[in-house]
Amino acid sequence: MLVFAKIKSVQQKINSLNKGTKIGFVPTMGALHRGHLSLIEKAKIENNIVVVSIFVNPTQFDKEEDLINYPKTIDKDLSLLKSVGCNIVFVPTAKEIYADNIKSQQFDFDGLEHQMEGKFRKGHFDGVGTIVKRLFEIVTPDNSYFGEKDFQQLQIIKKMVQKNQIPVNIIGCDIFREEDGLAMSSRNSRLTYEQRKAAPFIYKTLKQAKIEFGIKNALEVTEWVKNEFEKHPLLELEYFEIANEETLQPIENKKTSQKYRAFIAVFAGKIRLIDNISL
Length: 279
Ligand code: PAF
Hints:
Strand order of the largest sheet: 1-4-3-2-5-6
Shape: globular
Oligomer: single chain
Strand content: 15-25%
CATH topology of the largest domain: Rossmann fold
Bound molecules: pantoate
CATH architecture of the largest domain: 3-Layer(aba) Sandwich
Helix content: 25-40%
Structural class: alpha/beta
Order of helices and strands: EHEHEHHEHHHEHEHHHEEE
Number of helices: 11
Distance between the termini: 40 Å
CATH class of the largest domain: Alpha Beta
């Protein structure tokens, strides 16, 4: 496994590959867990080589505190990557990526960016768009893999690729869950013992909301979810929303011809957890 910190060196390596070598790319912010590894394993099957980037991207954090506290486990990450047969790891510094101008490009994602996470994390998706576009330019992948836990991010990256005509297939992968149902996330490692014990309530509620959606309208389901969280001593609901899977617009009238998904963001103390379920 080769590890590069410089754009020039990783590009040199990629340019030296035989023409037609299929490159699978998994961008990450490190603190890798089994969810990331499942993306890499899928990329291994579908490509000739797999590139993983580890970069805690400053421009996508709306809270400085969150950026500073983002878990960093580089040695463990590298040994995990080696164990799943990753070929190339790109670990740049912020200076390497942004030089002295740590700023996002402004994007128009046709309104996808104004829903849900966009309302609560100002500038977040411009930051994600900026770094993912930059990494695609550097790595020039054929296929790139993203987890559906960040479903809005996945749709936004698809939109960015389409609008900028970037020649890469964006592949969404199922949410990887702990045995108790909690969606895997690097942030889970920051939960206290009590918060971690409480957190599976999020997915449990989503699963029940899916059942409720079969017999109730979206407003009633939303009220039911709010009520469930109001009773919970450790988890605070930020939003629950049922939206069209493609446009991410909140549902108006349930139509059988459309696909819906329920999205949720919850605070456990200061740790913000998100999840979603196809309805
Ligand atoms: O999902 C993430 O970990 C990040 O948003 C990504 C896609 C690596 C961009 O920094």
